[in-house]
Amino acid sequence: MDQKTFDRGLSIRKEVLGEEYVAKSFASADEFNQPFQELVTEYCWGAVWGREELSKKTRSMLNLAMLAILNRPHELKIHVKGALKNGVTKTEIREIFMQVAIYAGVPAGVDAFRNAREAFKED
User: Fold this and answer.
1) Does 65 share its domain with 118?
2) Average pLDDT for residues 18-44, to the nearest whole number?
3) Does 92 share its domain with 113?
4) Full domain range(s) for residue 83
């Protein structure tokens, strides 16, 4: 593990998803999934989210579309909240999911809208 990339990833992960969520993820990790938490933090958040070529807002918008298309409701809700922190508006989220519905299918759009509304209520 590259400590510098991990530390950058941990900082970005906390900024986007919230310190409480990240702390809970690490606190609940055990011998089985601790290496996965480290991998996600270093590579996903440090090596990719840490790149400067795309803004955090743009990365959030891309994530929302991909997670909706992949039908990953738990991750979608978390990333809806993160997207709001990264400056994505509810109107932009709506438009992302409209696009998803057209290109990935109406059922994917229906689920995305439902999950986003639940995430809005939780925030």
Assistant:
1) yes
2) 96
3) yes
4) 56-122
- Reading the block at residue 29, the tokens are 């990790």
Q: Residue 79 carries which side chain, given as an amino acid letter?
A: H
Q: Which of 65, 54, 57, 121 is nearest to 87 (CA)?
A: 57
Q: How many CA atoms lie within 13 A of 42 on its CB side?
A: 12
Span 9-31, average pLDDT = 96
The number of distinct structural domains making up the chain is 2
Q: What is this structure's pTM?
A: 0.91
Q: Could you tell me if 76 and 18 lie in one domain?
A: no
